[in-house]
Amino acid sequence: MRRASLYLLILTLLVVACTGSAGESVTSSENVLRITGDSIEKSYAADDLKALEVAQASFRGVDYVGVPLAVLLQDAGFDLQTIKAVKAVAVDGFAANYGPELVTRTDTIVAYDQANGPLAEDEGSFRMVLPDQEGKLNVRQLVEIQVIP
Amino acid sequence: MKFTTRQLVTLAIFGTLWGVVEISLGSLLHAINLPMSGMFLAAVGLAIALLGRLFVPRRGATLFIGVIAMTLKLFSIGSVVIGPMIGILSEALVAELVLSLFKRPTRLALLLAGSLGVLWTLVQPFVTNPLLFGRSIFLVWLDILDRGAQLFSLDPNAWIWIVVGLAALHLLVGAGAGWLAWNTGRLLRVRMVASGTVPLET
């Protein structure tokens, strides 16, 4: 009984230890958003995003300003018809995947500001905003968008 | 699947225990966003259910415990419960199916039931996400690869290693749950016999 508990404890510690090292491989700068996939690689600073179409979307009662994801991907050179999925990656390596139906929604935006000021500190320079979707899909501290064709 | 009143009460106690763990620990793990929280919850829940099976070593007992736990999960506040409810029921069903292959609960039976029950949490999103949340199987696959890649610090393209690693981890944790249930059951039997109370029905 004690031995079994000990093994379980060791297993748990192993899993937690593995988790603790996650995200170390992420080297992207937080102030630049990379768009990658299908031999395309582009980087956008906040000013580059502000030069694109502006859209607003709300999540959990907060209004955000940004660029529609579909517009951003088209600007980067992707054909929306051929996209199978899009992965949003945070600075710590956390990732969320979106299907084409979410990517092409006009209220799915990459936010660079809140409606009444800059993004909060814990949101980073960019964040995903998908109204009415669960929290884990609304990635904060966004550093990369990977397109899976 | 006919139980005596005493057996029904025993199963209700274990089902309630599992349900309470799901409501309390489940909400906590969800709140702190612990990776693999489903795996941990399934392991704890199945350890309780398998222990219950030792007290009532009859066909259907594990499923019965799962049904009670699932019903209690309805009372979880502030979270989507349909996924976890299906999870509880299907884990109990997998464990029940494995146990039904054995004449009586043995250490091996409990290890196998725990392993496969916990492994089911890895497979379940492929079934429930498309049906309940409209996420495609391809997206579920990507989600699992991302989770595994982050957990093991691997490149998401190393999908074989990620899948093998995740499956091994789930099987191992599930086996731990079965082992814990078996040893706890044995310890309880020794103590119950020593104290003169009713021993386990094994």
Task: Provide an overview of this structure.
- The complex is a heterodimer of chains A (149) and B (202).
- Chain A has 149 residues and is an alpha+beta fold.
- Chain A has helices at residues 2-20, 46-50, 69-76, 100-103; strands at 33-37, 40-44, 55-59, 62-68, 85-90, 95-98, 109-114, 117-118, 127-129, 142-148.
- Chain A has a single domain (30-148), classed as Sulfite Oxidase, Chain A, domain 2 (Alpha-Beta Complex), CATH 3.90.420.
- In chain A, strand 5 and strand 6 form a beta hairpin.
- The longest helix of chain B is centred in the C-terminal third of the chain and has 37 residues, at 159-195.
- The two termini of chain B are 18 Å apart.
- The model of chain B has no long low-confidence stretch (mean pLDDT 91).
What attributes characterize this protein structure?
heterodimer; A: 149 residues; alpha+beta; Sulfite Oxidase, Chain A, domain 2; 5-stranded mixed beta sheet; 5-stranded antiparallel beta sheet; 4 helices; B: 202 residues; mainly alpha; 7 helices; 79% helix
Helix/strand layout:
The complex is a heterodimer of chains A (149) and B (202).
Chain A: H1 2-20, E1 33-37, E2 40-44, H2 46-50, E3 55-59, E4 62-68, H3 69-76, E5 85-90, E6 95-98, H4 100-103, E7 109-114, E8 117-118, E9 127-129, E10 142-148
Parallel strand pairs in A: 1-10
Antiparallel strand pairs in A: 1-2, 3-4, 4-7, 5-6, 5-10, 7-8, 7-9
Chain B: H1 5-32, H2 37-55, H3 61-73, H4 82-100, H5 107-133, H6 137-152, H7 159-195
Helix pairs in contact in B: 1-2, 1-3, 2-3, 2-4, 2-5, 2-7, 3-4, 4-5, 5-6, 5-7, 6-7
Short description, anyone?
The complex is a heterodimer of chains A (149) and B (202). Chain A is an alpha+beta fold and 149 residues long.
